[in-house]
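Weekly puzzle thread! Below is a chain. First person to post its structure in token form gets bragging rights.
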Amino acid sequence: MSEIKEAYTTRELAKIEGVAPKNLLRRAKREDWPFRLRSGRGGGFEYPTVTLPADVREKIALAVSAEERESLPVVLEPATPAVPQAPVVSLAHLSSRERDVVLSRKAFIDAVYNFETAGHTRRTAIITLVEGYKNGTLPQNLMDAAYIANARRGSSRGISITRLYDWCSTYEAKGVLGLVPINPQKGMAPPAWLHVFLQLWQKPQKPSVQQSYNEFVTLIEWVGAGMPEGTALLSVLPGKEIARKPHNSGILKELAEHPENIPSIHAVRRWLDKMPKKEQMHGRATGNAFRKFCAYKRRSTENMLPVEGFTGDGTTLDAMFFHPYQNRAFKPEITLILDIATRKCVGSSVDTSENGLTVLDALRAACVSYGIPQFFYTDNGPGYKNAMLTKEGTGILTQLGIVAKHSIPSVPQGKGLMEIAVKTICTPLSKRFDSCTHRDMDSDVARKFYLLTRKEIEKSAKSDRLPTLDQLLAALQYRIEEYNATPHTSLPKFTDANGKRRHYSPNEYWEMKLAENPDYEILAVPSAVRDELFMPTKECMVKNCRFKLAGHEYYAKDLDLFHGEKVNVRYDMRNPKRVTVWTLDMEMICEAFLDGNTIEYMVLSEQEQREAQKMRDAIGRIEKRAQKLVPGATIVCPDGSNIVEATATVVNSIRRPIGPVVDVQSLPEAGADWPREPAESLTESVALRTAEPRFEFPYEKFEHYMVHRESWTPEITEWMKWYVQTEEYADYEPIFASKGLAWEEASCAKCS
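Winning reply:
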């Protein structure tokens, strides 16, 4: 190899690097090396030498002059320079550091000239000096000068082929003053090329400096060639639209005409280091990610008092628990309420997912235990921004006089206090369970636990290894008490009884604030309305002392004066049989009961009475014959009821034909002799079977069959599909979802 080529193929570069061609090709794709189509026989593509990484170019130079270097002496001694010395220039105006850098660089330039005097080329001289530095064979004065001449920060300091070439050309063009290090300072006008480079680097894809620099050099070559169209390089050329802008194309064209002004990648890195972090990340980060680099204002809570303001948030716990209804593993949702002034956790709730009822339960616990705050600060999630909380007149917050405040969307920094508290409480809580799924958990142990518990659930529909919700509630309460008693770094410091200077704990700061303000009164929730106040509320129209709620009809005689008017109805999702009725001005009217005006359609007819009497007589004869065989025995039905209860059920079935049908198996006809069988088979021979349990309300029937899916029949399946379309199911869906019995959560094949 006699000289450096303009471009090299993959096979040629692989030979120089000493690696396999596929490995070099993999590196070229990873680092996005610019390439072009190869002219001549065979075709293919090649990599321009000027665009290759610095280390590859150095190896190419080493390979070109390998034969010439073999004749060089091993030990280098400084000789008299062959080049006439430049005029003496005063360096008094330079700092001591700058003078040391200039003299160190001049020492290497003199060494290069000494080799040229001995008859070697400049390329050979520079390569030999670089190899001697790397091998430690240079004279000690040059080894020491190499570290100073670099004039860079950090430990990666030394000389390279590129730097020695630059120093020699600069010295010959500008003299010794050209060797003075030029460090861009803050406030200096950036070079014009930096504007173009930033357009390639400041992208949301966050390309590396090396990748953007390679694209920058390729654009310079393309603009210098006149922006040719139709080339293979153009199809893969990044940033070509940037180069077509008039201002950018002018800068790139000037650099193409004067290649000596093209900055090195090191110059690019130095200018980037001088830029403020915010300016660097402009375009590389947006939204919340960019706000991390912007200035912000901290909210002070020093002048706030306890219960003046609450804040709430929820998170999914990083641990698996056994679902109480669906026989599966799941991650529960934890909602926490925090007192802003003292950082004390005052309320909590656990559910299968974040919803309005969970937030309502946590807020109820906080208000009942500690008092009513002036405002409630939350995010804009559906659990905190719903009619149950914020609706005018009927919302819990409006009824209590609590002002609802919400953070700015997509700005989580405004809720930093609550975000940190949730992480502080829930992260240690999750790590106390073997079912932890936190990112810090060992992945192998977590996977083994996952497979083991899932195998147990598939086999027996349960797993004793998974903790229960009761265990979670106990652990959560303990963790909250632990958090409230631990010194908090955001609270002021004081000297405790032991003479130790430390931060207040939330409990201590709460007590201290109340002690400093003895006249401060906390508004408590009246005990008489604690339960009713936090019930969900809905407006209903009264007609003939009746109104409909969740598909059910309620009645109260005291509503006679409110015919045709709207009232507020407070209801308990877990007990629909009783509700309380209030005026729109929130004055209590009365209680209303489910189907409170319902009576029997008519009394039993004479025929129905005779049929019922026949059934009672038949069952009486069966019981009499059983007593002859086994004195004192009680005939028990399969559902656990005795013969008397079964009789009542039969009679009731006559009154209500839609109810369950009870048939008697193997009953002997009247007057027939009772079969002589062993006493052990007596129960089976007279057992009663119930075709379907009785349900007072449709929601009870739905819940029963969601739990016992194995008992579904085609008729039951059709009824279930009809029921989930009703208004009643829509009203009860949050309750079903909290129990894991919602229709879309059913895993039974019959659901589809």
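Puzzle host: Confirmed. Bonus trivia for everyone else. The longest strand covers residues 309-316.
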